[in-house]
Amino acid sequence: MPELPEVETYIRELRPQLAGKRVVAGEVKWPRIIATPEPALFTELIRDRRFDTFGRRGKYMLLGLDSGETLIVHLRMTGEVRIHPASVLPDKHTHLLLTLDSNERLHYRDPRKFGRLWLVDDPESVVGKLGPEPLDEGFTPEGFASRLAGRTASIKALLLNQSIVAGVGNIYADEALFLARIDPRRSGGELSMPQVSVLHAAVRAVLQAGIEGRGSSLQSYAPPSGEKGSFQENHKVFRRTDLPCYQCGAAIRRIVLAQRSTHFCPQCQS
Ligand SMILES: [Zn+2]
To answer: What distance in angstroms lies between residue 177's CA and the mean position of ligand 1's atoms?
Structure first.
């Protein structure tokens, strides 16, 4: 699933492909892909709108339209947005087509159909419950500590909780915990303030490195340019089960925590 660095890469690559282009017509092929409003109203409201601003909140893309409304996209597992010449035909996994005034079409494609799109006046109605943006100044070690205080869940599960910090998913949670040398099974409320500070810095460092690598391309994921990201080459623990730890040589372990596969070094992380 695309996490903050992948979604940030998406927005950076969509901006030059989409900025200033106007929607001439919309066609919803699978109605449930549109969370709100009803598909007929969606196509009516988006017609004649121009793509104006490009933002991100957590794992959500915020595409601002010149009407003041925002098209919000969450790719979840297998969603992808591509801008193709009008001559490119949609395949059976394309659930939304937006015809643009540039003789191109935006294709929203999603084989597993977990992704969703919203067209709203106020983005807060969709993203308002998210925790702080980890790369913003508002995300502080003290604020992070107060959100973890008293929590008995594993620190891995708490990093995945979007109301504690937005945008971190399975890859970057495992990588941040390795960098901070913290065992993913420890309960979040038990971490000392120095450990929370180290983890706070580690979360920011792995996300920043992920953005610089244009994300991690695992399975089919690739940003809109189609050129895959490279951060998977820098993973220290994620999907390195049984391979030697780069720090100490011990075999990386894989366990299941919060129903998600979790990778860590049993020697370096305690
Ligand atoms: Zn190790």
So the answer is: 12
Q: What's the pLDDT at 221? A: 77
Q: What is the per-residue pLDDT across 47-67, written as a single tens digit (0 to 9) for each?
A: 999 999 999 999 999 999 999
pLDDT of residue 122: 98
Calpha distance 18→173 (Å, rounded): 31
Read off the pLDDT of each residue in 209-232 and give the average, rounded to a whole number: 88
For residues 84-91, give the mean pLDDT. 96
Query: Catalytic positions, please?
Result: 2-3, 59, 260
Closest listed residue to residue 106, CA positions, set 229, 228, 220, 24: 24
Ligand 1 being an ion, which residues bring their Cβ within 5 A of it?
A: 245, 247-248, 250, 265, 267-268
- The token pair that represents 36 in the structure block: 């709100």
Tell me the whole-structure pTM to 2 decimals.
0.95
Q: How far is the CA of 263 from the centre of ligand 1 (A)?
A: 11
User: Looking at residue 225, what is its pLDDT?
Assistant: 87
Residue pair 139/200 in contact by the 8 Å Cβ criterion: yes
User: Can you name the CATH fold of 141-264?
Assistant: Helicase, Ruva Protein; domain 3 (1.10.8)
Alpha carbon of 119 to ligand 1 centroid (Å)? 46
- Answer whether residue 16 shows pLDDT above 90: yes
Asked whether 267 and 250 are in contact (CB, 8 A), the reply is yes
Segments making up each domain of the chain, as ranges: 4-127, 141-264
Q: Does domain 4-127 have CATH number 3.40.50.150?
A: no
Distance 250 CA to ligand 1 centre (A): 5
User: Alpha helices, DSSP H only, in 149-189?
Assistant: 155-160, 170-179
